[in-house]
């Protein structure tokens, strides 16, 4: 499948124009086959169809006939493979590795700098820095002597069925393999995680018993840490490299003493947890030679900067490769990053700070806060295609919106930092498998999380920064899939919209002329926007109902008060009566 080719950093893949390249990637025979299939468009090859549906079939609900076709094809492939390897009875993994190597028939390494330059231009890869290594074209190239990728890693790549590398992978991997520091800015959902993991796994190669962590990966949220750990496990299968995820739970684990942690090769964690561990002398980072900041701009922004700084200081090794990845980088963060990096190479895929172009973006005027609820209900009534993610600006508003939607009978959940870790894990798992259709979230979920099948992102509350907009909408339209994003705005939001309008225009969306004339935000406006606009509560109860409810509530309160006063009065009278009686008794005595 070449859906993923769409991820050319904002480039639409014109197959006619790049016919020559398709031939390079797929081999002439396959390209010719595809051409003839196109001519006979009415006849759909069931295998092609099954592959296609499998790619877009997030919930694996496709018709069984298609799955049967796929099964038949797999059986045939297995049979073919068995025929060629039939008389070898060595260990299964070795066979697999051999099979993977056997498939490497030709490589497409660049012969000249000009070739590499043209390739970069074609894939919208921009590089800044000295002695920039050439990009690579295919995963087969990585396995060739020029890169010498560990056969086990190559096999794992083939197992996950990544057909072609994405632009950020094409350029970041060779740079990291050369040991250079890198700052990579590439669209959301474009495979940045694999871009930094593969070179690290290649360099670490196998476990080293005597040293402590050799690679450290930092991400801003616990959920993202877990997701990265999952990808490391898939990609490093068979290498015996050991991964440790540092969370509050693992820190409390009595088996995870500082000594036992020495046995791990890779540490993945959030900054806060790690800084605590550093202070408590629970971790030794002196052997770290790869330091990755995923969502680097967030980790170098106020709120995390101090902790990130402490982590850099604790990595005391003499030679540390630093790699920074994100879909957004402000100039300020880039300047800051340069001060902690050594001769870095900067990569930008497509335009800097742009949204992925597989997302259809829309701005919807709702007038008031109440108008948002009406717009949302109308959308639901028209019919939405789950899964859908809805972003709001605070925990309180997330709870309020949840109460509105749950009473509408929608299959909805809400996730924010007030929920327990178990609840959060459970919700994410359920959303991934399609058991939850609509998920209301705060900024916690805006970055990094990879839900391949999200069809629609609704910004119920206007995002507080342009970066937040790019990351939020980037939860859809991932890995070459199509997605939609709707952003509600009220009269109050109008003055803050220019940044988002610019992103939309840059991504090729239709934006009305008057929006382009909105003024850019000044410093004060940006600050105000970051703090969040004060908004009315989310409550769609009518004014009359609210008045009636309030009246009822007041009556109940008044009644309670009357009863309380009466009880107190009675108590007082009783006390006085008793006191009088006691006095009388005393006199009589
Ligand atoms: N070469 C590839 N071919 C096909 N799919 C890929 C490839 N590389 C990565 N993917 C898949 O693409 C999806 C998005 O990747 P990833 O989460 O790394 O994106 P990202 O660029 O880090 O996004 P974000 O900026 O939102 O964090 C994942 O499901 C991943 O498995």
From TrEMBL:
Residues 173-347 form the Helicase ATP-binding domain. Its main location: nucleus. It holds the Pfam family Helicase_C. The keyword Transferase does not apply. Residues 533-573, 579-589 have a biased composition (Basic and acidic residues). It catalyses: ATP + H2O = ADP + phosphate + H(+). It is found in: Nucleus, Nucleolus. Residues 67-99, 526-589 are annotated as: Disordered. Residues 378-519 form the Helicase C-terminal domain. Transmembrane segments: none annotated. One of its GO terms (cellular component) is cytosol. It comes from the Eukaryota. It is an enzyme of class 3 (hydrolase). GO terms for molecular function: ATP binding; hydrolase activity; RNA binding; RNA helicase activity. Keywords: ATP-binding, Helicase, Hydrolase, Nucleotide-binding, Nucleus, RNA-binding. One of its GO terms (biological process) is maturation of SSU-rRNA. Its EC number is 3.6.4.13. The keyword Amino-acid biosynthesis does not apply. Residues 80-95 have a biased composition (Acidic residues). Belongs to the DEAD box helicase family. DDX52/ROK1 subfamily. This is RNA helicase.
């Amino acid at each position: 499948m070449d859906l993923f080719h769409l991820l050319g950093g904002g480039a639409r893949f014109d197959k006619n124009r790049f016919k020559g390249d398709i031939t390079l990637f797929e081999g002439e025979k396959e390209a010719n086959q595809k051409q003839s299939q196109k001519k006979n468009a009415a006849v759909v090859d069931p295998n092609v169809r099954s592959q296609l549906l499998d790619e877009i079939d997030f919930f694996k609900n496709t018709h069984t006939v298609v799955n049967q076709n796929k099964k038949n094809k797999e059986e045939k492939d297995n049979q073919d493979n068995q025929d060629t390897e039939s008389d070898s009875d060595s260990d299964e993994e070795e066979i697999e590795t051999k099979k993977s190597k056997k498939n490497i028939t030709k490589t497409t390494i660049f012969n000249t700098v000009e070739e590499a330059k043209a390739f970069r231009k074609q894939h919208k890869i921009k590089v800044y820095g000295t002695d920039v290594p050439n990009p690579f074209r295919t995963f087969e190239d990585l396995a060739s002597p020029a890169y010498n990728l560990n056969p086990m890693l190559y096999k794992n790549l083939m197992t996950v069925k990544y057909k072609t590398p994405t632009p950020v992978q094409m350029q970041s991997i060779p740079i990291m393999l050369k040991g250079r520091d890198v700052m990579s800015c590439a669209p959301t959902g474009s495979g940045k995680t694999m871009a930094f993991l593969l070179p690290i796994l290649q360099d670490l190669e196998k476990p080293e018993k005597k040293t402590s962590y050799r690679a450290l990966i930092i991400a801003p949220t616990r959920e993202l840490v877990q997701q990265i750990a999952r990808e490391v496990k898939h990609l490093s299968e068979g290498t015996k490299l050991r991964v440790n995820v540092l969370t509050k739970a693992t820190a409390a684990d009595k088996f995870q003493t500082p000594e036992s942690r020495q046995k791990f090769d890779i540490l993945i964690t959030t900054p806060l947890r790690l800084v605590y561990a550093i202070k408590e002398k629970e971790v030794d980072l002196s052997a770290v030679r790869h330091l990755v900041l995923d969502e680097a701009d967030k980790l170098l922004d106020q709120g995390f900067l101090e902790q990130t700084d402490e982590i850099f200081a604790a990595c005391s090794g003499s030679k540390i490769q630093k790699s920074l990845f994100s879909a957004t980088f402000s100039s300020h963060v880039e300047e800051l990053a340069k001060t902690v990096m050594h001769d870095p190479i900067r990569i930008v895929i497509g335009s800097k700070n742009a949204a992925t172009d597989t997302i259809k973006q829309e701005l919807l005027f709702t007038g008031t806060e109440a108008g948002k609820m009406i717009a949302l209900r109308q959308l639901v009534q028209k019919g939405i295609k789950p899964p859908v993610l809805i972003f709001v600006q605070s925990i309180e508003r997330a709870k309020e919106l949840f109460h509105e939607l749950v009473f509408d009978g929608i299959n909805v959940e809400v996730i924010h930092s007030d929920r327990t870790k178990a609840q959060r894990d459970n919700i994410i798992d359920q959303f991934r498998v399609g058991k939850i259709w609509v998920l209301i979230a705060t900024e916690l979920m805006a970055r990094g999380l990879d839900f391949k099948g999200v069809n629609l992102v609704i910004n119920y509350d206007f995002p507080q920064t342009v970066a937040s907009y790019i990351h939020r909408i980037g939860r859809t339209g991932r890995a070459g899939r199509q997605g939609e994003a709707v952003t509600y705005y009220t009269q109050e939001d109008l003055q803050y919209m220019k940044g988002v309008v610019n992103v939309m225009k840059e991504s090729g969306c239709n934006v009305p002329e008057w929006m382009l004339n909105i003024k850019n935000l000044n410093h004060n406006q940006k600050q105000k926007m970051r703090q969040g606009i004060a908004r009315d509560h989310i409550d769609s109860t009518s004014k009359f109902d609210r008045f009636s409810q309030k009246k009822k509530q007041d009556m109940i309160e008044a009644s309670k008060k009357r009863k309380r006063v009466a009880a107190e009065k009675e108590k007082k009278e009783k006390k006085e009566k008793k006191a009088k009686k006691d006095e009388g008794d005393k006199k009589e005595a």
